[in-house]
Hints:
- With 246 residues, the chain is α/β, with parallel strands linked by helices.
- It has two domains: 2-104 and 233-245, ATPase, nucleotide binding domain (Nucleotidyltransferase, domain 5); 118-229, Nucleotidyltransferase, domain 5 (2-Layer Sandwich).
- The chain has eight helices and 15 strands.
- Strands 1, 2, 3, 4, 5 and 8 form a six-stranded mixed beta sheet that branches.
- The longest helix is centred in the last third of the chain and has 18 residues, at 177-194.
- The two termini are 13 Å apart.
- The model has no long low-confidence stretch (mean pLDDT 96).
- The structure holds beta-D-glucopyranose.
- Residues 65-67, 75, 77-78, 104-106, 130, 134, 136, 150, 152, 162 line the site of beta-D-glucopyranose.
Amino acid sequence: MEVLGIDIGGTGIKGAPVNIKTGELTAERFRIPTPEDATPQSIAQVVLEIVEHFNWKGMIGCTVPARVEHGLVRTATNIHALWIDTPVEKLLSEKTGCKVTVINDADAAGIASIKFGAGMGSNGLVFFITVGTGIGSAMFYNQVLIPGTELGHLRLKGDAAELYASDRTRVKEGLSWKRWAARFQKYLDRIEFLFAPDTIIIGGGVSRASKVELYSKYLSTRANLQFATLENEAGIIGAACFAGEN
Ligand code: BGC
């Protein structure tokens, strides 16, 4: 079965049809830059353009970088404040004429990792932590998603951890990989103080192999530490699978 997966990010909105049995994209990924204002209406317009690009008529799974509860967006830390309480599934379904299921971006990328990536077959308590503009999290127990965790907002140094240890902060503050890793280690320590994960998978932009080799030597966890392998496609694949199964 094929589902169109769409991943709404801070810089780009990307889509591709996905075979949800194998996790493979069945056509080349199509990307449109995220509009400057990034309001619900302008993003919905871009989603429509992606749907039209593939001439898609079927089911759609879509991510947003915010908490989603029963089709409503509940938070807006890195997106426009107008998103709060937006009935995003209704908005996108009406705009595209297709059934759209919406899921948090980290939950989606985590699903892809557990099904087809670095977390494939991982049992016990698994945390997928995606590090980019913000820090997002997905929690699994025996491969079942416990949705809606927001571990990027754990308090660290008096504020949300993502302000201290995200990739955006690394770039903004001009931190070396070693200095950023020292911050990220504090974040991982905090997670392991509060929870007892068996496996932690690091995803997002920092999981690219060429980057991992610059900082992984500075990290240590009690949990088995893994780095995601699907990177750019994880959100698309996970959103499609979630939509196909819900
Ligand atoms: C948001 C999360 C999101 C993460 C990664 C955080 O600021 O609160 O919902 O998963 O950024 O985009």
